[in-house]
């Protein structure tokens, strides 16, 4: 029977110290790329696997990160959180962390779940989504000095914690600027009711793009997310005396509703009217819908990086606002 590879045998094969191998596994950023590659090659060749149980005893950490699974919405854009979960899990596993999923009906029950998970399985840290003003969850975790990071900004001056987000205003600004360059002057925004922090952020980019282009009109409709919401919003806007010739939407779900209404009225997409969604879901790709793509893999990687910094007791990590990109298709 082949002997199990050890930290020492990997160090010998890579001609480095035992501490260097440990750094590659636990803190790869402190090792030079060349040395890191050599150690990783030795790990792969020898089939070395870190002894998780021993590490947990030594560090008194469970290597578990908690994440609440939010209820399924009525739009197609919920796939973004599915992509985030997959990327977060894959990135966490690279550092021998595991994601523990749980459900909660609201913020208050989510904080109760935090307490239960910490007491029962010793969860090391949490990742939060769907941040909002006066967020009870972040306040609860901060008061107890527990490590966490949010996918989403704090949305309030009174809140200060590590976060990762995508610049929604920049995304809709990219969409608006493109439509202006295509010659559109009647560019409508289809978004969510005022008070949705993410929606307000995306609306701001559209508004700034119109202002920069010297377009005073602000044609917009606020509806709840979903294809039917987008369809009803488009119907209202198209019934106006000077109907929009282009639509910037806060989600792909809304954009698909707009596309449906345009087709029902016999309007040619990309010719009579243009539509740009947000999230670049697989549905958008299949149907040829132009959309703003979020860098979800990068968001997940940054969330894990920030948590690892906190768990190592290093100075607080800088929050990150990542840029989206515009993906142009037939619409």
UniProtKB/TrEMBL annotation:
InterPro entries on file: HTH_LacI, LacI/GalR-like_sensor, Lambda_DNA-bd_dom_sf, Peripla_BP_I
Keywords, alphabetical: DNA-binding, Transcription, Transcription regulation
List the Gene3D superfamilies hit by this protein, alphabetically. 3.40.50.2300, lambda repressor-like DNA-binding domains
Q: Which residues form the HTH lacI-type domain?
A: 5-59
- Keyword Cell membrane in the entry? The reply is no
Gene Ontology MF term list: DNA-binding transcription factor activity; transcription cis-regulatory region binding
**In terms of domain of life, where is this protein from?**
Bacteria
CDD domains assigned to the protein according to its UniProt record, in alphabetical order: HTH_LacI (cd01392), PBP1_AglR_RafR-like (cd06292)
Q: Does the keyword DNA-binding apply?
A: yes
Could you tell me what this protein is called?
DNA-binding transcriptional regulator, LacI/PurR family
């Amino acid at each position: 029977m082949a002997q199990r590879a050890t930290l020492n045998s990997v160090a010998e094969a890579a001609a480095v110290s035992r501490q260097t191998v440990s750094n590659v596994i636990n803190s790869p950023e402190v090792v030079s790329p060349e040395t890191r590659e050599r150690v990783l090659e030795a790990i792969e060749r020898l089939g070395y696997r870190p002894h998780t149980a021993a590490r947990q005893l030594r560090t008194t950490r469970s290597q578990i990160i908690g994440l609440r699974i939010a209820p399924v919405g009525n739009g197609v854009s919920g796939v973004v959180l599915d992509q985030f979960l997959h990327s977060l899990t894959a990135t966490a596993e690279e550092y021998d962390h595991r994601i523990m999923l749980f459900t909660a009906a609201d913020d208050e029950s989510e904080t109760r779940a935090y307490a239960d998970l910490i007491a029962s399985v010793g969860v090391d840290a949490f990742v939060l989504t769907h941040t909002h003003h006066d967020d009870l969850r972040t306040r609860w975790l901060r008061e107890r000095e527990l490590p966490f990071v949010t996918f989403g900004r704090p949305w309030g001056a009174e809140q200060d914690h590590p976060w990762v987000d995508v610049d929604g205003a920049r995304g809709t600004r990219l969409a608006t600027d493109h439509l202006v360059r295509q010659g559109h002057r009647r560019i409508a925004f289809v978004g969510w009711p005022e008070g949705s922090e993410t929606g307000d952020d995306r609306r701001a980019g559209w508004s700034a793009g119109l202002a920069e282009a010297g377009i005073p009109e602000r044609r917009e409709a606020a509806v709840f997310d979903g294809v039917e919401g987008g369809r009803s919003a488009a119907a209202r806007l198209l019934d106006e005396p000077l109907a929009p010739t282009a639509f910037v939407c806060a989600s792909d779900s809304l954009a698909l509703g707009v596309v449906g209404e345009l087709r029902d009225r016999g309007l040619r997409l990309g010719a009579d009217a243009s539509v740009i969604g947000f999230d670049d879901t697989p549905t958008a790709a299949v149907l040829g819908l132009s959309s703003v793509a979020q860098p979800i893999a990068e968001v997940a990687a940054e969330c894990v990086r920030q948590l690892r910094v906190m768990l190592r007791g290093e100075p607080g990590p800088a929050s990150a606002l990542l840029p989206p990109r515009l993906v142009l298709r037939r619409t």
